[in-house]
Amino acid sequence: MKVKVAINGYGTIGKRVADAVRLQEDMEVVGVTKTKPDFEARLAVERGYKLYVAIPENVNRFEEAGIEISGTINDLLAECDVVVDCSPGKVGASNKPLYEKAGVKAIFQGGEKKDVAEVSFSTLANYDAAIGKDFVRVVSCNTTGLSRLLATVRRAGNIRKVRATMLRRVVDPKEDKKGLVNGIMPDPVRLPSHHGPDVQTVMPDINIITTAFKVPTTLMHVHAVSIEMPEVNADDVLAILENEPRLMLVSAEEGFTSTARIIEYARELRMRYDLFENVIWKESVAYNDGELFVTQAIHQESIVVPENVDAIRAMFELADKEESIRKTNKSLGIA
Ligand SMILES: NC(=O)c1ccc[n+]([C@@H]2O[C@H](COP(=O)([O-])OP(=O)(O)OC[C@H]3O[C@@H](n4cnc5c(N)ncnc54)[C@H](OP(=O)(O)O)[C@@H]3O)[C@@H](O)[C@H]2O)c1
User: Fold this and answer.
1) Least enclosed by CB within 10 Å: which of 143, 151, 158, 314?
2) Range of 218's domain?
3) Is there a single domain that holds both residue 64 and residue 94?
4) Which atom belonging to ligand 1 lies closest to the Cα atom of 300?
5) Is residue 130 within 8 Å of 311, Cβ to Cβ?
């Protein structure tokens, strides 16, 4: 029996989660939703997804546009075991009563507050916490990037404290309602940023403080991370990082001099130039006077995709952590 998965919100994250779920042998996509009958709705149908209308009052608009629909969100909820809510930030919480009424499990994304779900989730940090749960929140792209890194570094020794500065892409590439700002914007200005407490939703014992800036790029985020830990050897840490498939080690010497070059590589490697892995610059991994330094780049549009797939497995107890990671990685080409 395959777990029946609905995707509520076929946008940047939703379309990627749908395609990833489709690749799994133990789950299937029963339908996706849109509120607007635009080209993305038409593409969903062309790709073979059953399309449902997320806001029932909009059904006429789809009919007028000649886009084939299979019903509304309420019909879709009657068909599924779990809904992956990929609606815009804060909208997921307002959708939750629908899921409760339909008696289906739900996964929310990082744009929601933590109290939308029973548990905040990041595979390497706390897979087991989602086992059997009904409501799970996959943490944001930045939090996923930090949590994965810290969960892996912790294999080398105890982490005393973490300080991270994040340079965040200002918007996603498709955005045309707000644009690039010709400047570097402290965001938030009041420190620290919310990302540290968000990491603590999946790794409560980590002492972490973060700062964040928006920078005029759409491609990726970059994190400069300093991790205070007792005597470790940078080469040993590097070996541990290289061994974790959800991290990709690259080198400036080999031409990876910026996120632009990383994305150029991804364009050759993957559909939609998705990089599901944290991309870590090898040369950045250094240990000095009790602190480990790491610089990593995060492809915001795709990094949470494997975590959504793993969250489904944990919630339905389809596999333990290692098996789920192995299956998800294999299906997505994470080597
Ligand atoms: N993009 C990122 O970098 C990123 C990274 C990690 C996590 N996240 C989180 O993932 C979530 C989704 O973000 P996104 O970037 O994928 O947003 P997005 O590209 O704007 O897509 C949102 C989708 O939700 C649909 N939608 C709008 N109102 C809805 C409603 N009331 N009910 C159901 N669906 C609705 C939209 O359909 P229409 O287009 O038809 O209106 C659209 O397909 C947010 O919580 C965000 O914080 C985003």
Assistant:
1) 158
2) 142-298
3) yes
4) 3
5) yes
